[in-house]
Amino acid sequence: MSFRMSGDLEKEEEEDEEEEEEEEGSVNPTEVKMSQIVMPCHSNHRQELSVGQLLKWIDSSACLSAERHAGCPCVTASMDDIHFEHTISVGQVVNIKAKVNRAFNTSMEVGVQVSCEDLFSDRHWRVCHAFATFVTQRTNTGKKVILKPVVPHTEKEQVEYSVAAERRRVRMLHDDIIKDLLSHGSVLQADNSAVGNAVAAEKTKVESVELVLPPHANHQVNTFGGQIMAWMVNVATIAASRLCQAHPTLRTIDMFTFRGPSQVGDRLLLRAIVNNAFKNSIEVGVRAEAYHEAGPNRHINSAFMTFEVLDDHTKLCTLPRIRPEPLEGERRFQEAIARKKIRLDRKYIISQKQGEVPLSVPWDPRNQVYLSYNNVSALKMLAARKNWRLSSEKDKVRLFTLEYKSMLSVRVESEVNVPAHRAFRLLAELSDRPSWDPHYQKCELIHRVDDDDFLYRVVTPSVRQGGLGSPTSAQPGEGIQDFILLASKRKPCGSGDPYVIALRSVSLPTHPPTEGYKRGEVLCAGFTILETKDNMSLVSYYNQASPEVIPYISTDIAGLSSTFYHTFSSCSQYLARNRLQSASEEQTGPEQTTDIDSPPCDADADGLSVDLHSTHL
Does the keyword Lipid metabolism apply (predicted)? Predict the structure, then answer.
């Protein structure tokens, strides 16, 4: 379990207070709060709250929130990665807050925040957060229950609502990423035969049977998902302990999906084994099967959990190596290496706050899904920010600025007489941007990743400071800038969603900085296009200014020039000129765009054909 200094906890407390102030006065109808004081019966041998008990409370809170929105019984379909930041001691209070972030067709994403409260010092700090997917159960007549949409009210709710569609996309590609890592030989094959002191994986095997009784079930007589997770944590902890011969601490639980239900009277067969042991961490795989009397075993769930061992000074201990079993053991061993790589990608590309992510993350086919997620979600979060301040306006072209945590962002927007799907198609063609944007001298397509993601090299004129601080074009040889950009485009996932074209810098080994060009970086930029009325659309351009971008926008913000107006006017003229589709495009028509009334990404979570573009990794 990771521990932080008091200063970090105070910073977390301040951020939590800011969020509470933002949401004060707004009541989310799906919000469910649970507070539990940790008793000795909830704790482990260290007098700390057991993770299994915490998972039960998380699942219960999330289920109540989902059912409050659906108005009918719901079951847990999946849970995203959970990273436990702090332990909770006996006598402290666990505060859990769950609410529905977004409803799709028959499934919904529920966000859960877990914090700890010390009653004697009045301290509060975050423990973990989780995203669970719940699905509605069919009615007695077998009909599906179609969920009503969620209406976000606060800035935070709007951000979660927007990004929920991207998280859903990542979930659906999760298994394919591991298969691709293994099939393309991206994981180094480790030689374990030379490790003389390695522990045989067979010694870590655990098998346990649990009888599902009424206290383990919900009001629908199905076994609580949280209860199944708690039993799985128990056998995983035993397996990890057999390897390290110490009391391990559960650090993370990987994303997992419930494959089917179990009911009261079922026997749950739980098997666990250490898949791989790294220097300071252990991955344990757990499989849960259900059977009833003489019936066949049903695979209910599989999960992968990462443990660490801390010494008396809370420092990470070095762990013994593992010697896998032949065939299946070797497969699990290699897959554990792939999952470790994925955890690192998710931690440093997705989980970190936008300001903490390196600007030019190296692009690789194996981390493309997460870079695309970060690219789109960062733009959606920037667009959802409040407190944008109008700096200037000219002929209905408006320039807004936002200063947040020492970061300056700009937004330029105007309504154009072009349908949103057509404006999206035109602006997504980044190679055409030099025809209307003077800041783009050249834009060449490097690689078409898939239908939604592209890599470009963009060349822009550098600027130097002239009179009154106004930038003027650099003379030849003064250092023209170039950028390597990942462009990710998304169609709406529901009514009221905008089209999105997100841009961010990445680095490519095939395109290093070259002489005569200064390599610039873009942190977060792009367009959102929202259908308004009468085939018109609101086009908004965003840029979270990096040092290379500041000279282009500083004089506009100061009111010394109106470059933003001329550029956006040129963009509007470009859209107007190309408003009418060619004959071939009219044949395909806007049907290629997402049908807002039945968007493909709103397909069911419980089976289900999902019409998403597969990422070719």
Answer: yes
**Contact criterion met (CB below 8 Å) for 224 and 218:** yes
- Most confident range, picked from 178-192, 337-351, 405-419: 405-419
Q: Which of 53-62, 235-244, 553-562 has the lowest mean pLDDT?
A: 553-562
Residue 412: closest CA among 605, 294, 541: 541
Distance CA 299, CA 495 (A): 37
By the 8 A CB rule, do 561 and 393 touch? no
Strand 361-362 relative to strand 499-507: parallel, antiparallel, unpaired?
parallel
| Residue 407 banded pLDDT, cuts 50, 70, 90 | confident
Residue among 28, 94, 86 at smallest CA distance from 56: 94
Q: DSSP string spanning 183-205?
A: HTT-SPPP--TT-TTPEEGGGG-
Which pLDDT does position 494 carry in this prediction? 77
Looking at per-residue pLDDT, the higher value among 175 and 191 belongs to 175
Strand 32-37 with 249-253, pairing: unpaired
pLDDT of residue 233: 95
| 276 close to 239: Cβ distance less than 8 angstroms | no
In angstroms, the CA 574 to CA 578 distance is: 6
At how many degrees (to 10) do helices 563-577 and 420-428 cross? Answer: 110
**Residue 85 has what pLDDT?**
87
- The answer to whether residues 539 and 413 touch, using CB atoms and an 8 Å cutoff, is yes
Both structure tokens of 515 = 């002489």
φ/ψ of residue 226, rounded to 5: -65, -35
* The token pair that represents 514 in the structure block: 């070259």
Q: What is the dihedral of CA 243, 244, 247, 248, to 10 degrees?
A: -80
Of 67, 64, 102, 62, give the one whose Cα is nearest residue 82.
Answer: 62
Distance CA 100, CA 153 (A): 12
Return the amino acid letter for 101. Answer: N
Q: Closest by alpha carbon to 419, among 489, 493, 499, 496?
A: 499
Element containing residue 380 per DSSP (H, E):
helix 368-384
Q: Which amino acid is at 10?
A: E
Distances (CA, A) of 323 to 197, 331, 332, 339: 9, 12, 11, 18
Taking only the tens place, the pLDDT of each residue in 253-299 is 998 889 888 999 999 999 999 999 998 999 999 999 999 877 789 99
State pLDDT tens for residues 481-519. 899 999 999 998 877 889 999 999 999 989 998 888 888
DSSP 8-state secondary structure symbol assigned to residue 430: G
Predicted confidence (pLDDT) at residue 196 exceeds the cutoff of 70 = no
pTM for this prediction: 0.77
Q: Is the pLDDT of residue 116 over 80?
A: yes
Q: What is the DSSP letter of 561?
A: -
| Cα gap 4→126, rounded to integer Å | 11
Q: Count how many Cα atoms sit within 13 Å of the Cα of residue 304 in the half-sphere of its side chain.
A: 21
Tokens of 200: 């045989």
Q: In angstroms, rounded to a whole number, what is the distance separating the alpha carbons of residues 83 and 72?
A: 30
